[in-house]
Amino acid sequence: MKLTTAIITVILFGAFGYIGAAQKENEWLLVAAAAGLGLVIVFLLQQLLGWSSGNNIAAAGALEQGVLFMIPFAVLAVLADVWLGWHSAQAFFSAGLSTMAISSGAVIIKQGGHKFGSIIIPLVLAFAGSVAWMLITAKV
Asked: Which structural domain, as residue segments, surrounds residue 71?
């Protein structure tokens, strides 16, 4: 995983953790849990895309592009929470995570990767990550 991808992942997932914990006592615990979950998801996604394409360097580049697709969802979640008073971080998180996985997989497919291993399996990982996020936010 590239350093820039890891930094962006920690910032984005940490922001979702902070938004999700705005009304709770253990907000920094949720920020740390969200950042850790983000790093695990991105690491697993890179391994899956590397397996699908046969090239870990291409997978790291595709994932770097995919993580950038999560930025609009984080911005929308912050605006919805701060400006509109909507506590909808879970919905934006799930949509952003799915978009990140699919856009990364699309880059791998353009480079000759397997369609099933580049789209379906990362989407299942995004679904599992969304479920893990919902469980973490419910427990903390």
From this structure: 3-139
Contact 94, 133 (CB under 8 A): yes
The angle at the Cα of 30, spanning 61 to 88, to the nearest 5 degrees, equals 80
pTM across the whole model: 0.84
Q: How many residues does the chain have?
A: 140
The set of residues, in sequence order, having a beta carbon less than 8 Å from that of 88 and lying 6+ positions away, is 77, 80, 81
User: pLDDT (tens digit, 9 = 90+) per residue, 43-88?
Assistant: 998 888 888 888 888 888 888 888 889 899 988 888 888 888 887 8
Contact (Cβ atoms closer than 8 angstroms) between residue 122 and residue 45: yes
The Cα–Cα gap between 28 and 122 comes to 28
The confidence score (pLDDT) of residue 22 equals 66
Task: For residue 139, count CB atoms less than 10 angstroms from its CB and return exposed for 0-12, middle for 13-18, buried for 19 or more.
Answer: exposed
- Per the structure, the count of domains in the chain is 1
